[in-house]
Amino acid sequence: MTPDLPEAPPVIRDAILDWLSRFSATVREVDYRSAYPFWHPRIIAFGTVQPIVEGLEPFRDRQWESVWPKTSCFAFRLDVTRVLASADGNMAVAIAPFTSTGYAPDGKSFDRPGRTTLIFVAGEAERWVAVHSHMSLARGVPADSHGNRPVKAR
To answer: Which of 29, 13, 40 is closest to 153 using CA atoms?
Structure first.
């Protein structure tokens, strides 16, 4: 018999969905400074075309810098996001599709959907901190986007 997946209880699910919503706003605003508290300083991450990196600054430099200013309208699909949690409630995983808008070299926009897996640990004051991120684009979506939005805060 296959055991059920360890679905998160409502209080954890709601906290993770809130995290995703608030973090999405920092991406849309291209606000790196406001995004830092969401992540563990030694985050381990990779993406569609990004190698595995460890640390918040390499994550910002190799992932955020190559995507956030060049895309727009980023949002996680909270309606279909799955949240799993450890039995002790100290670790959670979000499996979430996302939407965004990319831009061709001529400025024409295109849909830029993808998916992400995030691993969280419980932090201080019931705050969740992401320790791992894997974001990738859906098949057939161009990896390059050519938008040029300003960075709000570093």
So the answer is: 29
**DSSP for 89-106?**
SSEEEEEEEEEEEEE-TT
How far apart, in Å, are the Cα atoms of 4 and each of 7, 25, 83, 118? 8, 33, 13, 20
Distance of CA 99 to the CA centre of its chain: 11
Q: Which domain holds residue 71?
A: 10-137
121 bridge partner residues: 91, 129
- Is the pLDDT assigned to residue 1 strictly greater than 90? no
Q: What is the pLDDT of residues 5-49, one digit of tens each?
A: 999 999 999 999 999 999 999 999 999 999 999 999 999 999 877
Token output for 122: 């419980």
The domain total for the chain is 1
